[in-house]
TrEMBL record:
The keyword Protease applies. It holds the Pfam family Peptidase_S9_N. Residues 1-24 are annotated as: Disordered. InterPro entries: AB_hydrolase_fold, Pept_S9_AS, Pept_S9A_N, Peptidase_S9_cat, Peptidase_S9A, Serine_Peptidase_S9A. Residues 479-694 form the Peptidase S9 prolyl oligopeptidase catalytic domain. SUPFAM superfamilies: alpha/beta-Hydrolases, Peptidase/esterase 'gauge' domain. This is S9 family peptidase. Residues 11-419 form the Peptidase S9A N-terminal domain. It comes from the Bacteria. Keywords: Hydrolase, Protease, Serine protease. The lineage of its organism: Bacteria, Pseudomonadati, Pseudomonadota, Alphaproteobacteria, Hyphomicrobiales. PROSITE patterns: PRO_ENDOPEP_SER.
Length: 699
């Protein structure tokens, strides 16, 4: 995709040098002006964006549209294929709760879900909330929650119609199907009912988009009257609120990326003062699973790096009463847990693969649910009810569509409820999924999950889309995706590099990919690319790297460190201006992110570490692969100006004529376009870019 006289010239961002001095180090930033001074207002009302910034972003959109014009037919073809693999009138298997079973369904042509219920053992379905109807006339619309009250008479539902993730909550009377006058604005998007169904607890966002306060809203009152239940003073922590399965407790969770704290109060007494379970200690995490008269707590306290489960009386949950019930086993990372009347359940990852383990609370007997494929994904959905022997889980692999099971924890019987339907057809036998390992620079072995068509030649001629993330301990599952098939059917090898910074190989895998060891994430990804070439899966000029958010930062870093290893790079909502963002404590996520990246405001060492890899700060005069950056104007997580500045600096310094494209959605935020089909259009765009770079435009 070289520039030529047939292509328009890219937008030129004027340079307005701004200096910043920290720890005696002065940096110049020529493109800081792209950060809107009134960014808080823009998130609420995009029309308030400064005209000169809007003009530049619109020029970027015009440029990328011109360069991608020859892919328009392919984009439509890809979109049609992807849509054809979706069962448009799909519906979930309803989950039972009291007298009803609740579920989600879609209609043919519908973009948004409908929330439904029916009698517990079957009968007429009632639509509680129609997402398509609520979205009418809105450029962007996303439903954040739909939660019925304990007495099943009302429904809290939340929505965002700007993409800025400032959610509004409404309450629907399920007898009349009309929304009440209650309107709760600027919330985190979810809520938890009190035990009497008289009101709910929620978090309110401040002007910097931080959830630091918990309020209680009583049905029928104005939001201005809502009492403050809890206030967190440290902007470096996230606050959330949740209820228990028996509706007996409300839990207030405070956490950053390495430390947590939990408070509790009785769900039938909103006026009660919250009670602290365990005071925060830096580096200690814990989470609660109520189990009747006891709490089961998942924690890394006491040096349990890969986590353990302890039990404590619900009336005396303080740490001095914690007793190990599932001790730590190094190398086996416990990911999550849940408690039911007769069973304790947890999800763990051992040797890179997930499994579900069940313990009988009466006898202590344990057994596991596991599968045999080289790489697969499990999801633990649990149950809405506490007194049950039945839980729900899902299974898929990169070749196997998702299968949903009910599992009897007592009899160990699996009941297949649903297999993901691919209307246009799917033959798992036509594809190969593998797990291979790339040797990293320091000798560690980096797992790579692979998907390719059985007829694809592994002689180095195949193009490859190599995906990576590698931050916050997030593990990228080797799960099924209908969209990927459009690449794989055109001869691509689809690869996921499970780099350090995730927890794919235990908690140490995460620790060795953060802060001063962050460079391991980038080196692992580059090692994965080079291993794929050595093993004949692809060649360097045919590898298109792909990552989003913190994975977009990975894309920026590998572009600087090893541009020759990639033919193209797709960076979605890329976190590329790391140093400037971590220095700006007014931004929504900056203080809570310091444990992950370091605090360059107070620490010169952290400053120098981040400066050494921050993609924007390390762009230099060298050849770069073709790059596509994608962003959303109202994104509160990775602000639009990060990729805007990065693209401008790349164009200024790069020494080749390969283009850099920047597409910005002026009506959306971090998650991209709303609606299931609108999102597919964005995937089709990215995949068309990858096919063009790989020379497969007409395949």
């Amino acid at each position: 995709m070289p520039n030529s006289t047939l292509h328009p010239q890219p937008p030129h961002a004027p340079k307005h040098p701004t200096s910043d001095t920290r720890h005696g180090i002065t940096r110049m930033d020529d493109y800081a002006w792209l950060r809107a001074d009134n960014w808080q207002e823009v998130f609420q009302d995009p029309s308030l964006l400064a005209p000169e910034i809007r003009k530049h972003l619109e020029a970027e959109n015009a440029y990328q549209a011109a360069l991608m014009q020859d892919t328009e037919a392919l984009q439509k073809e890809l979109f049609s294929e992807m849509r054809g693999r979706i069962k448009e009138d799909d519906s979930s298997v309803p989950i039972k709760d009291g007298p009803y079973a609740y579920g989600v369904s879609y209609v043919t042509g519908g973009q948004h879900p409908r929330f439904v219920r029916m009698p517990r053992d079957g009968g007429v379905e009632t639509i509680l909330l129609d997402g398509d109807r609520e979205a009418e006339g809105k450029a962007y619309f996303s439903i954040s929650t739909s939660d019925h009250s304990p007495d099943h008479q009302r429904l809290i539902w939340g929505f965002d119609d700007k993409g800025s993730e400032f959610f509004t909550l409404k309450v629907r009377d399920l007898a009349t199907m009309q929304d009440l006058a209650d309107l709760v604005t600027n919330t985190g998007g979810s809520a938890s009912w009190d035990a009497k169904s008289e009101g709910f607890f929620y978090t309110r966002l401040d002007e910097n988009h931080r959830a630091l306060e918990v309020y209680y809203h009583r049905i029928g009152t104005d939001q201005s009257q809502d009492p403050l239940i809890f206030k967190e003073k440290d902007p470096g922590f996230f606050v959330s609120v949740d209820g228990s399965p028996l509706d007996d407790y409300i839990f207030i969770d405070i956490h950053d990326h390495e430390t947590s704290e939990c408070w509790m109060l009785p769900a039938d007494n909103p006026a009660a003062s919250p009670r602290l379970i365990a005071p925060r200690q830096t580096g200690i995490e814990y989470s609660i699973a109520p189990g009747g008269d006891v709490f089961y707590i998942l924690t890394n306290a006491g040096g349990a790096k890969d986590f353990k489960i302890v039990v404590t009386p619900a009336h005396a949950p303080e740490p001095e009463n914690w007793q190990d019930v599932v001790p730590e086993k190094p190398g086996r990372l416990i990911l999550s847990h849940a408690a039911y009347k007769h069973h304790l359940v947890w999800m763990e990852r051992d040797n890179g693969l997930p499994r579900i383990v069940i313990r009988d609370r009466d006898t202590g007997e344990e057994h596991a649910i596991a599968f045999d494929e080289e790489a697969y994904s499990l999801g633990l959905h649990g149950s809405a009810e506490y007194d049950t022997d039945i839980i729900r889980f899902s299974y898929s692999s990169m070749t196997t569509p998702e299968q949903l099971y009910d599992y009897n924890m007592r009899t160990r019987e699996r009941t297949l409820l649903k297999t993901q339907e691919v209307p246009s057809g799917h033959n798992p036998q036509a594809y190969v999924t593998r797990r291979i390992f790339a040797p990293a620079e320091d000798g560690e072995l980096v797992p790579i999950s692979l998907l390719y068509h059985k007829d694809t030649k592994l002689d180095g001629s195949a193009p490859c889309l190599l995906y990576g993330y590698g931050s916050y301990g997030i593990t990228i599952p080797a799960s099924f995706s209908t969209s990927r098939l459009s690449l794989v059917d055109r001869g691509f090898v689809y690869a996921i590099a499970h780099v350090r910074g995730g927890k794919d190989k235990g908690f140490a895998w995460y620790e060795n990919g953060k802060r001063e060891k962050k460079v391991n994430t980038f080196k692992d990804f580059i090692a994965a690319a080079r291993h794929l070439v050595r093993e004949g899966f692809t060649s360097h000029d045919r590898i298109i790297a792909h990552g989003g958010s913190a994975g977009g930062m990975l894309m920026g870093a590998i572009a600087n460190m090893a541009p020759e290893a990639f033919g193209g790079i797709i960076a979605e909502v890329p976190f590329v201006d790391v140093l400037n963002t971590m220095l700006d404590d007014t931004l929504p996520l900056t203080p809570p992110e310091w444990p992950e990246w370091g605090n360059p405001i107070t620490s010169e060492e952290d400053y120098r570490t981040i400066a050494s890899y921050s993609p924007y700060d390390n762009v230099k005069a060298q050849a770069y692969p073709v790059i596509l950056a994608i962003a959303g104007l109202t994104d509160p997580r990775v602000t639009y100006w990060e990729p805007a500045k990065w693209v401008a600096k790349l164009r200024e310094l790069k020494t080749d004529d390969r283009p850099v494209l920047f597409k910005i959605n002026m009506d959306a935020g971090h998650a991209g376009a709303s609606g299931r089909f609108s999102r597919l259009e964005e995937v089709a765009y990215s995949y068309a870019f990858a096919l063009k770079i790989a020379g497969r435009l007409n395949n």
